[in-house]
Amino acid sequence: MVDRSVRRVTTAQDIGKAINPLLVEGQIIGGTAQGLGYALLEQAVYKDGAMQNAQLTNYIIPTSLDMPPLDVVLVEKPYARGPSGAKGIGELPMDVPGPAVAAAIFRATGLLIPELPILPEKILAAMLARDARDADNMRDARDAPVVRNGRAAREKERA
Fold it and tell me: For residues 38 and 117, is the Cβ–Cβ distance under 8 A?
């Protein structure tokens, strides 16, 4: 079984000055949830250019029950060009979860899954492909002729 569970998320966002910290934190939590959904769940299926799973009954997105514990760090350094020192926070929290999940899976398995979402079947397919390559490499190594290098080998060949 392939376990892709995210046990905890810590996110730090440079937001300039938080005019309403509670609202900013809520925006970050929502964007992080959306990014995790894109990384792990949201598989759009298309046929002849039309989306086949365009309803919430068959296009899976995370709910609050799917979210791991989340630590939000507001990095506040007032922005000189923003209103009252604030920066926009809209889409930024969505940018990090996908690469972070891919990096965690790479660290755990040695496999880089190049496209999102990273579904269990993609991980399994990559593991099976790696195992098949490893088996082929072992077979090739076993069947390869022995190559001797160095002076002792050359002297033995001359004798």
Answer: yes
Q: Quick count: other Cβ atoms within 10 Å of Cβ 70? A: 16
Annotated catalytic residue, options 25, 42, 76, 91: 91
Let me know if 91 is a catalytic residue: yes
- Mind listing the domains of the chain with CATH numbers? 9-158 (3.30.365.10)
Q: Would you call 145 exposed, middle or buried from its count of C-beta atoms within 10 A (0-12, 13-18, 19+)?
A: exposed
In tens, the pLDDT along 89-118 reads 888 899 999 999 999 999 999 999 999 999
SS (H, E, C) 82-100: CHHHECCCCCHHHCCHHHH
